Amino acid sequence: MCHVILTCWSMLWTILSIVVAFTELIAFMSADWLIGKAKPLSSEDMDNRTGGTQEPYHPTLGIYGHCTRISHVQLSRRDTLCGPYAENFNQIASGFWQATAVFLALGIMILCTMAFVSVFTMCVQSIMKKSIFNVCGLLQGIAGLFLILGLILYPAGWGCQKVTSYCGPYASAYKLGDCSLGWAFYTAIGGTILTFICAVFSAQAEIATSSDQVEEEIEEGKNLICLL
């Protein structure tokens, strides 16, 4: 018989698991990992209304995508065009970035799977006589290790030709040159930290759902147990 068990820890773990998966996925897909050095504007980018020049723009570069600014001469306005610069895996700018993409993708796949599974833990608390919370927590810890490996390897690729075209000739492994880190990199770091917090919360969720109070309510014949 399925017992629906809701506890404060299990709900918190489920919500955080979903948030972490989406956070890492959004960061991975973003082109805002590196913010390039300012590009000078052409005469076509002059502000016709004020007669002055507008601020130079900063192109951004992600693991496999980038954002650049294109000018519409007839309309005297600018748009930012974002999209992948690599049409396939082999065209990713650096071998280190290829490894980063693999490790991040593996970690994100595990996190997305755990986020999906976490929704059903309110009804299914064990699998093959193993606590599903402990299994998910272990896998989330493994995903966190994959993410760490990816983030460590990522700066090693800053010396590739693609990065130097954005960050100047002084860019090299673990040296940004004229670039700065974008929000996607910090988001990925934050998501990695939250991944390990999720693993800790899974253990607390296991303790909460197997507590004496839950067992007592099961013995009373209750199918819906809410201990929030």
CATH class of the domain at 8-35 and 93-220: Mainly Alpha
- Could you say what the CATH topology of the domain at 8-35 and 93-220 is called? Butyryl-CoA Dehydrogenase, subunit A, domain 3
Report the average pLDDT across residues: 82
> Alpha-carbon distance between the termini?
22 Å
> What characteristic shape results from the CA principal axes?
elongated
Strand content: 5-15%
Largest sheet: 5 strands, antiparallel
**Helix/strand structural class:** alpha+beta
Low-confidence stretches: 45-53, 72-77
The ordered H/E elements are EHEEEEHEEHHEHHE
Helix content: 40-55%
The strand order across the widest sheet is 5-4-3-2-8
Give a description of the structure.
This is LHPL2 protein. The chain crosses the membrane at residues 12-35, 96-120, 132-154, 183-203. InterPro entries: LHFPL. Residues 1-21 form the signal peptide. With 228 residues, the chain is of the alpha+beta class. The protein has a domain at 8-35 and 93-220: Butyryl-CoA Dehydrogenase, subunit A, domain 3 (Up-down Bundle). Helices cover 49% and strands 15% of the residues. The protein contains six helices and nine strands, in the order E-H-E-E-E-E-H-E-E-H-H-E-H-H-E. Helix 1 (8-29) packs antiparallel against helix 2. The longest helix has 27 residues, at 183-209.
List keywords for this structure.
single chain; 228 residues; alpha+beta; Butyryl-CoA Dehydrogenase, subunit A, domain 3; 5-stranded antiparallel β-sheet; two-stranded parallel ribbon; 9 strands; 15% strand
Provide a brief overview of the structure.
The protein is built from six helices and nine strands, in the order βαββββαββααβααβ. It has helices spanning 8-29, 95-119, 132-153, 161-167, 183-209, 212-219, and strands at 4-7, 34-35, 60-61, 65-72, 77-84, 126-127, 130-131, 180-181, 224-227.
